[in-house]
Amino acid sequence: MPTPTTSFNQAVIEEFRANGGKVGGPFAGGALLLLTTTGAKSGKEHTTPLGFVRDGDLLLLVGSNLGGPRHPDWYHNVLAHPTVGVELGTEEFQAIAVPAEGERRDRLFARITAVEPGYGDYQARTSRTLPVVVLERPAHEAAIPAQAGNFAEKMRQVHLWLRGQLRHVRDETDAYFAARAAHQGPGAAPEPGLGLQIRQHCLAFCDALEFHHTSEDAHLFPTMAGYHPELRETFDRLAAEHRTVARIQGELAALLADVGGADPERFRTQLACMSDELTRHLDYEEEALVPILAELPWPPGPPAGVR
């Protein structure tokens, strides 16, 4: 049975979508967006109306829960699945949700309370530190073509995103180790954890990679194999490479399951393995399949159109 909160939220969501992002009631005149997260336990999508504050190109959210003693459900969801859907006015896009830490969190929270003082009141009501979550759109997305006219172009879109996101995580990891080396003397104990910035970006990459390879294994490859039996060895090799990449992905995800305790050295080793294996796999997949996929329209037509 819907609770009063879920019923209220659903009414706001319907009004938001019916009026291009404009709503009345307690949200009238305020900055409001709809955030769609994936449940940390259920795996189901949940949409929540939330106030936000802009900081340049970034959108800032606060896990205030009205000053309650616990973080809101949507916050736990983004820790488990950082890729979120955002509806802002009539615009819809995906973003990566990254909780700010330390000095950055304090600076951004001060920025938020300068615009919306009510969040300061919420902080005063509770002993927990209200999390500040930054919605980021990866910079490399700007270089990815927005439209795809055939399956080959669609595959390249996905591969460009995966390559770019993996490169971004590696750059952040290199910067982390450089900063750690600069602050540690000889024989100093390593600092624990990697930080939420690296964690969230890597988990977003892992989620996208798993979805892409699962879709290929379940749909694309079996369909293509039916029309191209001469490529049986190619599909066997691609499936084997998927299993290898999935094993490394699982090891990365296991390391990042502890929000603050990932072993940095083990993470860097597994990330290097992922980079090597995935790069070889994507190169081979494009070489083997792009010429065939270029003949198939995107979005896909009826099965009879497959050649």
From TrEMBL:
InterPro entries reported for this sequence: F420H2_quin_Rdtase, Hemerythrin-like, Split_barrel_FMN-bd
Ranges annotated as spanning the membrane: none
UniProt feature coiled coil, ranges: none
Alphabetized Pfam families for the sequence: F420H2_quin_red, Hemerythrin
Enzymatic reactions: oxidized coenzyme F420-(gamma-L-Glu)(n) + a quinol + H(+) = reduced coenzyme F420-(gamma-L-Glu)(n) + a quinone
Residue ranges occupied by any Hemerythrin-like domain in the UniProt entry: 152-293
Domain of life: Bacteria
NCBIfam families: hi_GC_TIGR00026
Family: Belongs to the F420H(2)-dependent quinone reductase family.
Protein name, UniProt field: Nitroreductase/quinone reductase family protein
Organism: Streptomyces huasconensis
